[in-house]
Amino acid sequence: MFRDIHHIAVICSDYHVSKDFYVNKLGLSIIKEVYREERNSYKLDLALHDRYVMELFSFPDPPERPSFPEACGLRHLAFSVEDVEETAAVLEEKGIPVEKIRVDPITNKRFTFFQDPDQLPIEIYEC
C-alpha cells in the first residue's frame, strides 16, 4: 500500500528565521520557493541529500502549538545520524541548544532533541 513517507509539512511563525534555520543551520537544500500572494504565504520545498523531505509554510498569524510536547498531532520530526554526540556538537556550535543525550531502553540507540525556531521538537537518532 504505502511505499515511503513523501514529505513533512511545517508551518512557521517567522518564515525568514525558519528558512535560515532549516537551510543554513541544518543544511537542507532548497528545491523550490514560492510566494503565494493570494494567501500571503510562502511555501519552501526542502531536500535532504537531494531527496524531497519537507515543506515549510508561512501563514499570517498561525495559532500557537497547544502544549509542549504532548499536543495531539505530530509529536516531533526525527533525523537519523551516524553519531549523535558529533551531530549535537555541530548543532551547539551553530547556537542551537541540544538536550542531554539519552539511550533508548528498547533499542540501546543514542538520541536527543533540539527545537526549531517555533519550538517544534526535532530528534536526532543514531542509526
UniProtKB/TrEMBL annotation:
Record keywords: Metal-binding
Keyword Metal-binding in annotation: yes
PROSITE patterns named among the record's database cross-references: VOC (PS51819)
Pfam families noted in UniProt: Glyoxalase
This protein's record includes keyword Metal-binding: yes
Alphabetized SUPFAM superfamilies for the sequence: Glyoxalase/Bleomycin resistance protein/Dihydroxybiphenyl dioxygenase (SSF54593)
Coiled coil: none
Residues of the VOC domain: 4-127
Annotated GO MF terms: metal ion binding
Gene3D superfamilies hit by this protein: 2,3-Dihydroxybiphenyl 1,2-Dioxygenase, domain 1 (3.10.180.10)
PANTHER family (UniProt xref): FOSFOMYCIN RESISTANCE PROTEIN FOSX, LYASE, PUTATIVE-RELATED-RELATED
NCBIfam families per UniProt: PRK11478.1
Protein known as: VOC family protein
Organism for this UniProt entry: Gracilibacillus thailandensis
